[in-house]
Amino acid sequence: MDFDLTEDLQDIRRLARDFAETEVKPTVDADDKAHRFRPDLVKKMGELGFFGCAVPEEYGGNGMGFAALAILAEETARVWSSLRLAFAANLLGPAMTILRYGSEELKKKYVPPLVNADVFGCFALTEPNAGSDVAAMKTKAILDGDHYVLNGSKMWISYCTVADVGLVYAYTDPSRPVKGMSAFIVDMKSEGITNEAITEKLGNWGGPVGSITFENCRVPKENLLGKEGEGFVIAMKQLDDTRLASMAGALGVAQACLDASIEYCNQREQFGQLIGKYQMIQDQIAQMVVDINAARLMVYKVAFLKDKGRSCTLETSMAKLFAAETANKCADYAMKIYSAYGYSEEYPVARFFRDAKYYQIVEGTSNIQKTIVANDALGYRKANK
Ligand SMILES: Cc1cc2nc3c(=O)[nH]c(=O)nc-3n(C[C@H](O)[C@H](O)[C@H](O)COP(=O)(O)OP(=O)(O)OC[C@H]3O[C@@H](n4cnc5c(N)ncnc54)[C@H](O)[C@@H]3O)c2cc1C
Protein backbone atom coordinates (compact mmCIF):
# COMPACT_ATOMS: atom_id res chain seq x y z
CA MET A 1 0.00 0.00 0.00
CA ASP A 2 1.26 3.45 -0.96
CA PHE A 3 1.08 5.73 2.08
CA ASP A 4 1.36 8.93 0.07
CA LEU A 5 -1.68 10.44 -1.58
CA THR A 6 -1.20 11.10 -5.27
CA GLU A 7 -1.01 14.71 -6.51
CA ASP A 8 -4.56 14.33 -7.85
CA LEU A 9 -5.89 13.24 -4.45
CA GLN A 10 -4.06 16.09 -2.73
CA ASP A 11 -5.70 18.50 -5.21
CA ILE A 12 -9.07 16.95 -4.41
CA ARG A 13 -8.51 17.55 -0.71
CA ARG A 14 -7.62 21.19 -1.40
CA LEU A 15 -10.76 21.59 -3.53
CA ALA A 16 -13.00 20.05 -0.88
CA ARG A 17 -11.41 22.02 1.96
CA ASP A 18 -11.74 25.26 0.02
CA PHE A 19 -15.43 24.55 -0.69
CA ALA A 20 -16.16 23.65 2.93
CA GLU A 21 -14.25 26.60 4.39
CA THR A 22 -15.57 29.26 2.03
CA GLU A 23 -19.09 28.08 1.13
CA VAL A 24 -20.20 26.09 4.16
CA LYS A 25 -18.37 27.34 7.24
CA PRO A 26 -19.53 30.97 7.24
CA THR A 27 -23.17 29.95 7.80
CA VAL A 28 -22.82 26.49 9.33
CA ASP A 29 -23.75 27.42 12.89
CA ALA A 30 -26.81 29.41 11.85
CA ASP A 31 -27.90 26.74 9.36
CA ASP A 32 -27.49 23.94 11.86
CA LYS A 33 -29.31 25.75 14.66
CA ALA A 34 -32.19 26.51 12.26
CA HIS A 35 -32.29 22.79 11.27
CA ARG A 36 -31.90 24.08 7.72
CA PHE A 37 -31.34 21.77 4.77
CA ARG A 38 -29.21 23.55 2.14
CA PRO A 39 -30.17 22.15 -1.28
CA ASP A 40 -28.09 24.90 -2.92
CA LEU A 41 -24.93 23.55 -1.25
CA VAL A 42 -25.72 19.99 -2.31
CA LYS A 43 -26.29 21.21 -5.86
CA LYS A 44 -22.98 23.07 -5.76
CA MET A 45 -21.27 19.85 -4.64
CA GLY A 46 -22.86 18.15 -7.63
CA GLU A 47 -21.58 20.86 -9.96
CA LEU A 48 -18.07 20.49 -8.50
CA GLY A 49 -18.15 16.77 -9.30
CA PHE A 50 -18.30 15.55 -5.69
CA PHE A 51 -20.88 12.89 -6.59
CA GLY A 52 -19.20 11.85 -9.82
CA CYS A 53 -16.43 9.84 -8.16
CA ALA A 54 -16.45 6.17 -9.13
CA VAL A 55 -19.07 6.92 -11.82
CA PRO A 56 -18.01 6.49 -15.46
CA GLU A 57 -18.06 9.61 -17.64
CA GLU A 58 -20.80 8.21 -19.90
CA TYR A 59 -23.21 8.48 -16.94
CA GLY A 60 -22.16 11.97 -15.93
CA GLY A 61 -19.33 10.99 -13.59
CA ASN A 62 -15.64 11.77 -13.52
CA GLY A 63 -14.29 8.35 -12.57
CA MET A 64 -12.07 9.85 -9.85
CA GLY A 65 -12.71 6.80 -7.71
CA PHE A 66 -13.49 5.85 -4.13
CA ALA A 67 -10.33 7.34 -2.59
CA ALA A 68 -11.37 10.74 -3.95
CA LEU A 69 -14.84 10.18 -2.58
CA ALA A 70 -13.54 9.34 0.90
CA ILE A 71 -11.47 12.53 0.98
CA LEU A 72 -14.38 14.66 -0.23
CA ALA A 73 -16.76 13.17 2.36
CA GLU A 74 -14.17 13.58 5.14
CA GLU A 75 -13.52 17.24 4.32
CA THR A 76 -17.23 18.00 4.02
CA ALA A 77 -18.04 16.39 7.39
CA ARG A 78 -15.11 18.18 9.01
CA VAL A 79 -17.10 21.37 8.57
CA TRP A 80 -20.71 20.11 8.56
CA SER A 81 -21.61 16.48 9.14
CA SER A 82 -25.19 17.05 7.96
CA LEU A 83 -24.04 17.95 4.47
CA ARG A 84 -22.07 14.72 4.09
CA LEU A 85 -25.32 12.74 3.97
CA ALA A 86 -25.63 13.60 0.27
CA PHE A 87 -22.74 11.26 -0.61
CA ALA A 88 -24.84 8.30 0.52
CA ALA A 89 -28.27 9.66 -0.43
CA ASN A 90 -27.33 10.56 -4.01
CA LEU A 91 -24.20 8.71 -5.02
CA LEU A 92 -23.43 5.57 -3.01
CA GLY A 93 -27.05 4.57 -2.35
CA PRO A 94 -29.16 4.91 -5.50
CA ALA A 95 -26.64 5.93 -8.23
CA MET A 96 -24.01 3.30 -7.44
CA THR A 97 -26.62 0.56 -7.00
CA ILE A 98 -28.27 1.42 -10.33
CA LEU A 99 -24.82 1.26 -11.94
CA ARG A 100 -24.25 -2.19 -10.44
CA TYR A 101 -27.67 -3.74 -10.95
CA GLY A 102 -29.80 -1.52 -13.19
CA SER A 103 -30.66 -1.81 -16.87
CA GLU A 104 -29.06 0.54 -19.40
CA GLU A 105 -32.30 2.57 -19.47
CA LEU A 106 -32.28 3.02 -15.69
CA LYS A 107 -28.60 4.02 -15.73
CA LYS A 108 -29.17 6.65 -18.43
CA LYS A 109 -32.33 8.00 -16.85
CA TYR A 110 -31.35 8.23 -13.18
CA VAL A 111 -27.57 8.28 -12.72
CA PRO A 112 -26.63 11.60 -14.44
CA PRO A 113 -29.20 13.73 -12.54
CA LEU A 114 -28.21 12.09 -9.21
CA VAL A 115 -24.54 12.74 -9.93
CA ASN A 116 -25.18 16.39 -10.86
CA ALA A 117 -27.54 16.76 -7.88
CA ASP A 118 -30.28 17.95 -10.25
CA VAL A 119 -32.39 15.53 -8.20
CA PHE A 120 -32.04 14.20 -4.66
CA GLY A 121 -32.00 10.53 -3.75
CA CYS A 122 -32.49 8.30 -0.73
CA PHE A 123 -32.20 4.62 0.17
CA ALA A 124 -34.86 2.92 2.24
CA LEU A 125 -34.11 -0.25 4.17
CA THR A 126 -35.12 0.51 7.76
CA GLU A 127 -38.67 0.04 9.06
CA PRO A 128 -40.26 0.63 12.45
CA ASN A 129 -39.59 -3.01 13.41
CA ALA A 130 -36.67 -3.80 11.14
CA GLY A 131 -33.42 -1.96 11.97
CA SER A 132 -30.33 -4.14 12.34
CA ASP A 133 -32.48 -7.11 11.29
CA VAL A 134 -33.02 -5.89 7.75
CA ALA A 135 -34.64 -9.17 6.68
CA ALA A 136 -37.49 -8.56 9.14
CA MET A 137 -38.88 -5.82 6.89
CA LYS A 138 -42.59 -6.04 6.07
CA THR A 139 -42.91 -3.80 3.01
CA LYS A 140 -44.27 -5.79 0.07
CA ALA A 141 -43.97 -5.33 -3.68
CA ILE A 142 -46.48 -7.57 -5.42
CA LEU A 143 -46.49 -7.92 -9.18
CA ASP A 144 -49.71 -6.77 -10.87
CA GLY A 145 -49.46 -6.72 -14.67
CA ASP A 146 -46.53 -4.56 -15.67
CA HIS A 147 -46.21 -2.88 -12.26
CA TYR A 148 -45.18 -3.84 -8.74
CA VAL A 149 -47.57 -2.55 -6.08
CA LEU A 150 -45.75 -1.33 -2.96
CA ASN A 151 -47.36 -1.34 0.49
CA GLY A 152 -45.62 -0.73 3.81
CA SER A 153 -43.67 1.84 5.70
CA LYS A 154 -40.04 2.86 6.08
CA MET A 155 -38.55 4.74 9.00
CA TRP A 156 -35.46 6.89 9.60
CA ILE A 157 -34.81 7.46 5.91
CA SER A 158 -32.33 10.27 5.26
CA TYR A 159 -33.44 12.71 2.56
CA CYS A 160 -36.79 10.98 2.03
CA THR A 161 -38.67 14.24 2.51
CA VAL A 162 -36.70 15.94 -0.27
CA ALA A 163 -35.93 12.93 -2.49
CA ASP A 164 -36.99 12.54 -6.10
CA VAL A 165 -35.50 9.05 -6.51
CA GLY A 166 -35.55 6.26 -3.94
CA LEU A 167 -33.74 2.94 -3.73
CA VAL A 168 -36.41 0.93 -1.94
CA TYR A 169 -36.24 -2.63 -0.62
CA ALA A 170 -39.39 -4.76 -0.31
CA TYR A 171 -40.51 -8.39 -0.34
CA THR A 172 -41.73 -9.65 -3.71
CA ASP A 173 -42.19 -13.03 -2.02
CA PRO A 174 -43.06 -12.43 1.65
CA SER A 175 -43.12 -16.19 2.30
CA ARG A 176 -39.33 -16.38 1.82
CA PRO A 177 -37.37 -14.45 4.46
CA VAL A 178 -34.17 -12.94 2.98
CA LYS A 179 -34.51 -14.73 -0.36
CA GLY A 180 -37.85 -13.12 -1.23
CA MET A 181 -36.53 -9.54 -0.97
CA SER A 182 -36.07 -7.32 -4.02
CA ALA A 183 -34.74 -3.85 -4.76
CA PHE A 184 -36.45 -1.10 -6.76
CA ILE A 185 -35.85 2.38 -8.06
CA VAL A 186 -38.90 4.39 -7.14
CA ASP A 187 -39.99 7.82 -8.31
CA MET A 188 -40.60 9.36 -4.89
CA LYS A 189 -43.21 11.78 -6.26
CA SER A 190 -45.42 8.84 -7.34
CA GLU A 191 -49.00 8.51 -6.21
CA GLY A 192 -49.32 6.42 -3.06
CA ILE A 193 -46.22 7.81 -1.31
CA THR A 194 -46.41 10.04 1.74
CA ASN A 195 -43.61 11.31 3.99
CA GLU A 196 -43.36 12.61 7.47
CA ALA A 197 -40.28 14.47 8.65
CA ILE A 198 -38.60 13.49 11.94
CA THR A 199 -37.76 16.93 13.27
CA GLU A 200 -36.92 16.19 16.89
CA LYS A 201 -33.60 14.38 16.84
CA LEU A 202 -30.26 14.51 18.61
CA GLY A 203 -27.99 15.71 15.82
CA ASN A 204 -27.34 16.18 12.10
CA TRP A 205 -29.89 18.96 12.24
CA GLY A 206 -29.22 20.05 8.66
CA GLY A 207 -29.88 16.57 7.24
CA PRO A 208 -33.54 15.82 6.61
CA VAL A 209 -34.76 12.43 7.80
CA GLY A 210 -38.23 10.95 7.99
CA SER A 211 -40.63 8.10 7.38
CA ILE A 212 -42.21 6.93 4.14
CA THR A 213 -45.58 5.25 3.73
CA PHE A 214 -46.36 3.30 0.56
CA GLU A 215 -50.03 2.76 -0.10
CA ASN A 216 -50.70 0.91 -3.34
CA CYS A 217 -47.80 2.73 -4.96
CA ARG A 218 -47.33 1.41 -8.51
CA VAL A 219 -43.73 0.99 -9.65
CA PRO A 220 -42.98 0.02 -13.28
CA LYS A 221 -41.72 -3.55 -13.62
CA GLU A 222 -38.56 -2.33 -15.35
CA ASN A 223 -37.55 -0.46 -12.17
CA LEU A 224 -36.61 -3.75 -10.50
CA LEU A 225 -32.84 -3.88 -9.86
CA GLY A 226 -31.21 -7.20 -10.62
CA LYS A 227 -33.64 -10.09 -10.35
CA GLU A 228 -36.53 -10.77 -8.00
CA GLY A 229 -35.10 -12.21 -4.79
CA GLU A 230 -31.70 -10.49 -5.12
CA GLY A 231 -32.69 -7.62 -2.82
CA PHE A 232 -30.82 -8.79 0.28
CA VAL A 233 -27.57 -9.33 -1.62
CA ILE A 234 -28.01 -5.91 -3.27
CA ALA A 235 -28.65 -4.33 0.15
CA MET A 236 -25.45 -5.80 1.62
CA LYS A 237 -23.46 -4.60 -1.39
CA GLN A 238 -25.05 -1.15 -1.06
CA LEU A 239 -24.10 -1.02 2.63
CA ASP A 240 -20.51 -1.87 1.70
CA ASP A 241 -20.59 1.25 -0.48
CA THR A 242 -22.54 3.64 1.75
CA ARG A 243 -20.45 2.67 4.79
CA LEU A 244 -17.45 4.25 3.05
CA ALA A 245 -19.15 7.66 3.12
CA SER A 246 -20.21 7.23 6.74
CA MET A 247 -16.75 6.14 7.97
CA ALA A 248 -15.20 9.09 6.09
CA GLY A 249 -17.80 11.36 7.69
CA ALA A 250 -16.94 10.04 11.15
CA LEU A 251 -13.27 10.70 10.39
CA GLY A 252 -14.11 14.29 9.42
CA VAL A 253 -16.01 14.86 12.67
CA ALA A 254 -13.11 13.39 14.68
CA GLN A 255 -10.66 15.72 12.93
CA ALA A 256 -12.94 18.70 13.60
CA CYS A 257 -12.90 17.81 17.31
CA LEU A 258 -9.11 17.66 17.34
CA ASP A 259 -8.73 20.94 15.41
CA ALA A 260 -11.09 22.71 17.79
CA SER A 261 -9.37 21.20 20.84
CA ILE A 262 -5.90 22.32 19.74
CA GLU A 263 -7.19 25.85 19.15
CA TYR A 264 -8.76 26.02 22.59
CA CYS A 265 -5.76 24.48 24.39
CA ASN A 266 -3.60 27.26 23.00
CA GLN A 267 -5.95 30.00 24.09
CA ARG A 268 -7.51 29.00 27.42
CA GLU A 269 -5.42 29.65 30.54
CA GLN A 270 -6.05 28.29 34.01
CA PHE A 271 -3.71 28.45 37.04
CA GLY A 272 -1.56 30.89 35.09
CA GLN A 273 -0.79 28.78 32.06
CA LEU A 274 -2.32 27.40 28.87
CA ILE A 275 -4.39 24.28 29.54
CA GLY A 276 -2.47 22.59 26.67
CA LYS A 277 0.54 22.48 28.98
CA TYR A 278 -1.18 20.10 31.40
CA GLN A 279 -0.20 16.47 31.08
CA MET A 280 -3.75 15.13 31.36
CA ILE A 281 -4.90 17.39 28.52
CA GLN A 282 -1.88 16.29 26.49
CA ASP A 283 -2.90 12.69 27.06
CA GLN A 284 -6.30 13.46 25.51
CA ILE A 285 -4.74 15.31 22.56
CA ALA A 286 -2.24 12.49 21.96
CA GLN A 287 -4.96 9.83 21.99
CA MET A 288 -7.02 11.85 19.54
CA VAL A 289 -4.08 12.34 17.17
CA VAL A 290 -3.14 8.66 17.21
CA ASP A 291 -6.70 7.32 16.82
CA ILE A 292 -7.49 9.74 14.00
CA ASN A 293 -4.34 8.71 12.16
CA ALA A 294 -5.22 5.03 12.59
CA ALA A 295 -8.82 5.65 11.49
CA ARG A 296 -7.62 7.55 8.42
CA LEU A 297 -5.36 4.67 7.36
CA MET A 298 -8.24 2.22 7.79
CA VAL A 299 -10.73 4.37 5.88
CA TYR A 300 -8.36 5.08 3.00
CA LYS A 301 -7.43 1.40 2.81
CA VAL A 302 -11.10 0.54 2.22
CA ALA A 303 -11.27 3.21 -0.48
CA PHE A 304 -8.09 1.91 -2.16
CA LEU A 305 -9.35 -1.69 -2.05
CA LYS A 306 -12.61 -0.57 -3.64
CA ASP A 307 -10.68 1.28 -6.34
CA LYS A 308 -8.90 -1.99 -7.10
CA GLY A 309 -12.25 -3.78 -7.29
CA ARG A 310 -11.35 -6.00 -4.31
CA SER A 311 -13.92 -7.47 -1.93
CA CYS A 312 -13.52 -5.63 1.38
CA THR A 313 -16.57 -6.21 3.58
CA LEU A 314 -14.32 -7.12 6.53
CA GLU A 315 -12.10 -4.05 6.14
CA THR A 316 -15.26 -1.95 5.72
CA SER A 317 -16.74 -3.17 9.02
CA MET A 318 -13.44 -2.69 10.87
CA ALA A 319 -12.98 0.83 9.53
CA LYS A 320 -16.61 1.87 10.03
CA LEU A 321 -16.50 0.61 13.63
CA PHE A 322 -13.18 2.27 14.42
CA ALA A 323 -13.98 5.58 12.72
CA ALA A 324 -17.39 5.83 14.44
CA GLU A 325 -15.93 5.07 17.86
CA THR A 326 -13.03 7.48 17.22
CA ALA A 327 -15.47 10.28 16.34
CA ASN A 328 -17.28 9.71 19.63
CA LYS A 329 -14.10 9.47 21.68
CA CYS A 330 -12.78 12.68 20.13
CA ALA A 331 -16.13 14.45 20.64
CA ASP A 332 -16.08 13.37 24.29
CA TYR A 333 -12.50 14.61 24.76
CA ALA A 334 -13.20 17.89 22.94
CA MET A 335 -16.18 18.42 25.23
CA LYS A 336 -14.00 17.76 28.28
CA ILE A 337 -11.31 20.14 27.03
CA TYR A 338 -13.85 22.91 26.36
CA SER A 339 -15.66 22.04 29.56
CA ALA A 340 -18.45 24.59 30.27
CA TYR A 341 -17.82 26.35 26.95
CA GLY A 342 -18.22 23.01 25.19
CA TYR A 343 -21.55 22.57 26.91
CA SER A 344 -22.67 25.94 25.53
CA GLU A 345 -23.60 26.65 21.93
CA GLU A 346 -20.93 29.33 21.67
CA TYR A 347 -18.44 26.90 20.12
CA PRO A 348 -19.10 24.12 17.56
CA VAL A 349 -18.06 21.35 19.97
CA ALA A 350 -21.63 20.71 21.14
CA ARG A 351 -22.63 20.18 17.51
CA PHE A 352 -19.73 17.76 16.93
CA PHE A 353 -20.78 15.86 20.07
CA ARG A 354 -24.38 15.53 18.82
CA ASP A 355 -23.37 14.66 15.25
CA ALA A 356 -20.80 12.01 16.26
CA LYS A 357 -23.50 9.76 17.75
CA TYR A 358 -25.10 9.27 14.36
CA TYR A 359 -22.08 7.31 13.11
CA GLN A 360 -22.42 4.61 15.78
CA ILE A 361 -25.98 3.92 14.60
CA VAL A 362 -26.36 4.21 10.83
CA GLU A 363 -25.62 1.56 8.25
CA GLY A 364 -25.03 -1.07 10.86
CA THR A 365 -24.50 -0.14 14.49
CA SER A 366 -21.10 -0.56 16.10
CA ASN A 367 -22.39 -3.86 17.56
CA ILE A 368 -23.32 -5.10 14.09
CA GLN A 369 -19.85 -4.22 12.73
CA LYS A 370 -18.35 -6.17 15.65
CA THR A 371 -20.46 -9.24 14.84
CA ILE A 372 -19.20 -9.15 11.25
CA VAL A 373 -15.56 -8.86 12.41
CA ALA A 374 -15.88 -11.51 15.14
CA ASN A 375 -17.78 -14.02 12.98
CA ASP A 376 -15.05 -13.67 10.38
CA ALA A 377 -12.23 -14.06 12.92
CA LEU A 378 -13.87 -17.08 14.54
CA GLY A 379 -14.41 -18.72 11.15
CA TYR A 380 -18.22 -18.82 11.49
CA ARG A 381 -18.95 -16.59 8.49
CA LYS A 382 -16.28 -15.17 6.22
CA ALA A 383 -17.00 -11.53 5.44
CA ASN A 384 -15.09 -11.17 2.15
CA LYS A 385 -16.51 -13.23 -0.68
C1 LIG B 1 -30.27 10.00 11.63
C2 LIG B 1 -30.48 8.63 11.04
C3 LIG B 1 -30.48 8.47 9.65
C4 LIG B 1 -30.73 7.23 9.10
N1 LIG B 1 -30.77 7.10 7.72
C5 LIG B 1 -31.15 5.91 7.17
C6 LIG B 1 -31.35 5.77 5.74
O1 LIG B 1 -31.11 6.72 4.97
N2 LIG B 1 -31.83 4.60 5.26
C7 LIG B 1 -32.09 3.53 6.06
O2 LIG B 1 -32.51 2.49 5.56
N3 LIG B 1 -31.89 3.61 7.41
C8 LIG B 1 -31.45 4.77 7.98
N4 LIG B 1 -31.28 4.87 9.35
C9 LIG B 1 -31.59 3.72 10.20
C10 LIG B 1 -30.34 3.03 10.75
O3 LIG B 1 -29.66 2.37 9.72
C11 LIG B 1 -30.83 2.09 11.86
O4 LIG B 1 -31.21 2.93 12.93
C12 LIG B 1 -29.75 1.11 12.30
O5 LIG B 1 -29.59 0.14 11.31
C13 LIG B 1 -30.06 0.44 13.65
O6 LIG B 1 -31.36 0.01 13.70
P1 LIG B 1 -32.26 0.37 14.97
O7 LIG B 1 -32.05 1.81 15.27
O8 LIG B 1 -33.65 -0.09 14.69
O9 LIG B 1 -31.64 -0.43 16.17
P2 LIG B 1 -31.94 -1.97 16.58
O10 LIG B 1 -31.63 -2.84 15.41
O11 LIG B 1 -33.27 -2.08 17.20
O12 LIG B 1 -30.83 -2.21 17.68
C14 LIG B 1 -30.98 -1.80 19.04
C15 LIG B 1 -29.70 -2.16 19.78
O13 LIG B 1 -29.51 -3.58 19.73
C16 LIG B 1 -28.26 -3.89 19.16
N5 LIG B 1 -28.36 -5.10 18.36
C17 LIG B 1 -29.32 -5.43 17.45
N6 LIG B 1 -29.06 -6.62 16.92
C18 LIG B 1 -27.90 -7.07 17.48
C19 LIG B 1 -27.10 -8.24 17.31
N7 LIG B 1 -27.42 -9.19 16.42
N8 LIG B 1 -25.98 -8.34 18.05
C20 LIG B 1 -25.62 -7.38 18.94
N9 LIG B 1 -26.34 -6.25 19.14
C21 LIG B 1 -27.46 -6.09 18.41
C22 LIG B 1 -27.89 -2.68 18.32
O14 LIG B 1 -26.50 -2.57 18.13
C23 LIG B 1 -28.45 -1.55 19.15
O15 LIG B 1 -27.51 -1.24 20.15
C24 LIG B 1 -30.98 6.12 9.94
C25 LIG B 1 -30.94 6.27 11.33
C26 LIG B 1 -30.70 7.52 11.87
C27 LIG B 1 -30.69 7.66 13.37
Characterize the structure shown.
The chain is of the alpha+beta class. The protein folds into 3 domains: 7-120, Butyryl-Coa Dehydrogenase, subunit A, domain 1, CATH 1.10.540.10; 122-228, Butyryl-CoA Dehydrogenase, subunit A, domain 2; 232-377, Up-down Bundle (Butyryl-CoA Dehydrogenase, subunit A, domain 3), CATH 1.20.140. The chain has helices spanning 7-33, 39-47, 66-79, 81-101, 104-116, 231-265, 279-307, 313-338, 340-343, 349-361, 366-377, and strands spanning 121-124, 140-144, 147-158, 165-171, 181-187, 193-197, 209-220, 224-225, 269-270, 273-274. The protein has a 4-stranded mixed sheet. The protein has a 4-stranded antiparallel sheet with strand order 2-3-7-6, with no helix packed on it. Residues 122-126, 131-132, 156-158, 204, 209, 358, 361-363, 365, 367-368, 371 line the site of flavin-adenine dinucleotide (FAD).
Number of helices: 11
Quick one: overall form? Answer: globular
Looking at how many chains there are and whether they match, the oligomeric state comes to: single chain
Low-pLDDT ranges? none
Can you list the ligands bound to this structure? flavin-adenine dinucleotide
The CATH architecture of the largest domain comes to Up-down Bundle
Mean pLDDT: 97
| H and E string | HHHHHEEEEEEEEHEEHHHHH
Q: Any idea how many domains? A: 3
Look up the CATH topology of the largest domain.
Butyryl-CoA Dehydrogenase, subunit A, domain 3
Question: By CATH's scheme, which homologous superfamily of the largest domain applies?
Answer: Butyryl-CoA Dehydrogenase, subunit A, domain 3
- Enumerate the strands of the largest sheet in spatial order, edge to edge or round the barrel: 1-4-5-8
Radius of gyration: 21 Å
